[in-house]
Predict the structure.
Amino acid sequence: MGDNVSTSDNPAPGPEETPPDAAASEKAASEGAAGAAAAAAPVKGTGRRGETLLEVEDLGKHFPVTQGIVFKRQVGAVKAVDGVSFSVRKGETLGLVGESGCGKTTTGRMIMRLLEPSFGKITFEGHDITHMSQRDMRPLRRDIQMIFQDPYSSLNPRQTVGSIVGAAFRLQGEQPRQGVRAAVQELLEMVGLSPEHYNRYPHEFSGGQRQRIGIARTLALRPKLIVADEPVSALDVSVQAQVVNLLEDLQDELDLTYVVIAHDLSVVRHISDRVAVMYLGKLVEIADRADLYERPMHPYTNALLSAVPIPDPSKREGRDRIRLQGDVPSPLDPPPACRFHTRCWKAQEICKQVEPPLQELSPGHMAACHFPENTTVSATDLVAKAAVAPGPAPGPADSPVGKD
Amino acid sequence: MARKNDKRDDEMRDGTSTAPAGPADSRPPSSFLEVRDLRIHFPTDDGLVKSVDGLSFQLERGKTLGIVGESGSGKSVTSLGILGLHNRRNARVSGEIWLDGQELVGASEEQVRRLRGRDMAMIFQDPLSSMHPFYTVGHQIIEAYRIHNDVTRKVARKHAIDMLGRVGIPRPDRRVDDYPHQFSGGMRQRAMIAMALSCDPELLIADEPTTALDVTVQAQILDLLRDLQREFNSAIIMITHDLGVVAELSDDILVMYGGRCVEYGTVDDVFHAPEHPYTWGLLGSMPRLDRERSERLLPIKGTPPSLINLPSGCAFNPRCAYAELNGGKSTEERPDLRDAAPGHRVACHLPAEKRRQIWNDEIAPKL
Amino acid sequence: MIRYIIRRLLVAVLLLAIISLVTFGIFFLLPKLAGQSTDDLAARYLGREVTPEGLAGVKAKLGLDDPFLVRYWEFVQGMFVGQEYKFGTSITECPAPCLGYSYRTNEPVFDLLLDRAPVTFSIALGAAVLWLLAGVTIGVISALKRGSVFDRASMSAALAGVSLPMFFTGLVSIWLICRQLKLLPTPRYHEFLDNPATWAQALILPWITLAFLYAAMYARLTRAGMLETMGEDYIRTARAKGLPERTVITRHGLRSALTPIITIFGLDIGLLLGGAVITETTFSFAGLGQLMLQGITRSDLPVALGVTMATGLFVIVANLVVDILYAVADPRVRLA
């Protein structure tokens, strides 16, 4: 599926990458103009930051399910993530949304290499880190950091704030110029805490402050990529906004790249440049923020957006609601072909037989659906295309297009 | 409401002029549910925790009151207080709770127990931990039904299946014998609702009923609650931190902060003409899907206060961006809840015109 | 549920097989490691008149020179269908549950066990029932009346119980109750089938002695479990339904609080036998402990092996019962 990913939207390859082959260049030529035009708008900051920082291709994680007492035999697999592909450009924020069990957290953990991928490939700054050993990963660990959901359990209660935040220096064997203490205090200030908090313990802080400590810890080594797994969902509403603003400020200040995993669609819209929607281990739609929220193509995205309660009582009546029936099916035995067909109101026979590939339906906007909405591309076209769609990804070099 | 809104604040500070009738007045009210000057205090080693401190509101059948607040605002303590679920040994409950003409705070534990489940019921945030893992869903509904209805197991079981069907659980005759862990999250919350509604209570308290659920399932549950309310004509108290949920379901809204009500009014009042800086803060803190994306969120500074050590004066003053406009008043005096407009009450020292001006000029345009 | 029981049964049988194989292996290897030849073993069996013919005969009769697996197979066979020992022309028939003969007394090991096991198992089971009842009751009351005089007193007593060794409490109780106060005669074991009353009377002090230690532990465990359970969300739900407090405590609270107790009980069964052995020694009862000691000190391997098998069987069966109880209590286990 790699060839379907971020086609025209994708910037020039990084210096380490092999140059695109002939076929890709051709494709680039034909789509380049439109792609560049569409992609230029939503990227914030000082214009486009071209390079791809992180590339995920056909990534999957299957957890085996075993039975038996002495001899374990595998009776199935939980297909937590089943072939997702996307790329993250330097300086942007990619939002990963979906309901529980969609595989967004598993994806994040695989990027962090906290989980071993079952298949697929993760490329970070041109290095294939998919199966890199822990030792080889170590120098890269400083570049990829994670913010966790629960600020209560992710901080060691027996360590002072100073040693929690300073641990990163110790682990990487780095001596900051100004000394660890000063460096930590600088970090604390950066995340809106007071340097005097250095000798305090986590329990003396509120949830929001703890999350700031967690953020300070991840920032210690000046990472390039931060994977934030539900960074605000455990916090009070008024505090959520503080942390969201902090994350945005830090991004501008330190030129960070984020992958934000969250279930809250409003938060994701606020914080992300591009948004990927997952359902049952698959990517169903990925697009620029404005595009996705204003013109969602996949019915699931539509349903998700429609389900979000709107804090405006005057819009309570007359809202066009889509109500999905039932719950998300078990990832142990996901529906065949299009995984959403069991809950989809547009589903037809083909949805049960042919899996719709993730297709670029308008520049920079990809969806995996036979009958997408908000697009002029007709369903039949797509079906025809789907029928002749090539097999698995030829490689990453296939996709980069449209250098500007 | 008939309270004088003059400047004699010090006289009224303790009397919390929130109730339409004063605390001394204990005539049965005309409303279906009326809470007057409810105080729930917990003596602890660290001091007296005033989780709820002078709360008053009323609610009619078929209507929904949304209670909004952050952690530690006292919203959940209020709901447990209405049900009489606080241990009388370690909680001091005072004030009045009138449910359909019957006063509950002064009633015996046994009297209140008989009302629980039958006249007032509750659904909780986490349906998995709120159901006993060792009993089938059916058993737990049957148990709830049979405490208050003298029927055989067979009749009760039929009723349980019927209830499960009504809350939208497919094949209820088979699911009735399943255990809670065999249900999905959404189905579990439906079962929980079925259990709460099994005795056809007139008051349903829903404490963060959808917080643990996915957004599509949340939408289903909110729809279900709305439909069931129409069918049963129950009064619902919806306790949540999510303004979206409140806006979808409520008729009235009560905003709590530090154990007290800071703003109380109809859903239109509170969303379209909010008067309290805390309410403004809540509205500014949440990113919204129904508006243009704002460049920045407008958070409230600081964190929710600890109930043991509430700030003096207005509990919100350390976080309030407009506290200085009142001179030192905010830190010295606790503002009373007063009518800003008929039926719309707010506890703030800012003059009414000033509040309206701030809202119209500074806050509303940025949301 | 039935599938679960069958599964546990299969596991139990498998475990027994492994235990028998391992213990048999150990007892097979032990003499060799000690440098004893099979001749030495046979000589011990013969007693005073050691002749080469006699030695050969004994070795053939007991199959001492046979390879390990053959001997193990015969041992297993003996348990199920019995065994024949040929000594010259005489044939000794050892009927079905045959565990061999004592090298020393020449008695069938199974009969020895049959004689001794009831003493130990009576002490163990009786004490277990007593400590569960006492421990759980005290624990529940303490939890419900947390901070009360009862709570503090019983938890202090529990602390004492945990720290006093059995031989101390045992001897003190004999001295106090039997010698000084003369409330009970000095305990002597009686068969249950002869007279249950005298059986119980004889055992009451050993039971209390052994149960005191564990009841104390279980009271503390139950108290902690009960306190935790009563704070659970589903207890709040039960109250919100309007259930009377008594029902809330017993049907919702206790039910959950007891499940971990059952698990711990399963683990304690092994220790329980050890405790029973110390207790029977304290009270000078002739039980399995004494038999085991004799078997080991006199290198009477069949006896030691038999005792090990008997206790192993007891622990496995008891654990099976506990597992099934656990599944009855917690549906999540049996459906998993």
